[in-house]
Specification:
By secondary structure, the protein is an alpha/beta fold. Strands 1, 2, 4, 5, 7, 8, 10, 13, 15, 17, 19, 20 and 22 form a 13-stranded parallel sheet that branches. A 7-stranded parallel sheet has the order 3-6-9-14-16-18-21, covered by helices on one side. Strand 11 and strand 12 form a beta hairpin.
Length: 235
């Protein structure tokens, strides 16, 4: 079980009116063991967001305002390095349903340099590989998304499909069969450029966030996640 120590980075800046809700999962018949989030000290969890239960958040991850990450049912979640969870995103999972990655099972595994854009929902069991872009108001549910793929706004990817690496899901598309997934085109150049620019901007967010909150510090010093949340990495 993770141990509770210290406080999240946001509590170390000058704005104390609202802080992220970072908590162990409640004890229930579905999930009888309490586990605390493990948040790397270089990650940032914004005010107004919730991180609950067995969640690992790796280095340089940005969690924007009004994000809900809850493992009181499906568990565990893992968010890889340099990933970007934007405003209003929901991460949740079905009880006792996991995707195997290597020898480990996850309700949700999000790789490195992934962007989950405004208002999207990722509902486990899901695996989203490195460098994937999940666009505005889209849904990924019981699916695997290959490295470098692009899921456009208002799209739905579900029903156990596996999106091959580097594929483009068009706006509003419903990819609910493997036949549909297998005929997707590759990601166009303009979409790749868009993702590259988003990632570039996100890497500047620690500076922007600290300015917004009224305290300028070096990025490495920003998210003073104390040992309350343990370390980072696969659990």
């Amino acid at each position: 079980m993770g141990e509770k120590k210290g406080s999240n980075a946001s509590s170390n800046n000058q704005s104390h009116c609202f802080e992220p809700f970072i908590s162990p999962n409640p004890i229930t018949s579905l999930n009888p063991v309490q586990r605390f989030p493990k948040i790397d000290k270089t990650a940032f969890v914004s005010q107004f967001s919730s991180v609950i239960g067995d969640v690992s958040i790796c280095n340089n991850v940005n969690v924007a305002p009004n994000v809900s990450i809850r493992t009181e049912e499906g568990t565990p979640f893992y968010i890889g390095s340099n990933s970007n969870i934007q405003d209003g995103v929901i991460l949740h999972g079905l009880f006792n349903k996991r995707i195997l990655v290597g020898t480990n099972g996850y309700s949700i595994l999000i790789g490195n340099e992934v962007t989950i854009a405004h208002g999207a929902m990722v509902h486990g069991p899901c695996y989203i590989a490195d460098k994937v872009f999940v666009s505005f108001n889209s849904i990924v549910y019981t699916a695997t998304v290959g490295r470098g793929s692009f899921i456009s706004y208002n799209a739905v990817v579900t029903n156990g499909v596996r999106i091959p690496p580097g594929r483009f899901v068009p706006p509003g598309a419903h990819i609910d069969s493997q036949e549909k997934a297998d005929v997707l085109s590759t990601v166009p150049k303009d979409s790749k450029e868009f993702v590259h620019e988003v990632q570039r901007v996100i890497m500047n967010f620690p500076h922007l966030i600290t300015c917004y909150l009224g305290k300028i510090v070096a990025p490495a010093d920003l998210p003073m996640t104390s040992d309350k949340f343990g370390g980072s990495g696969h659990s």
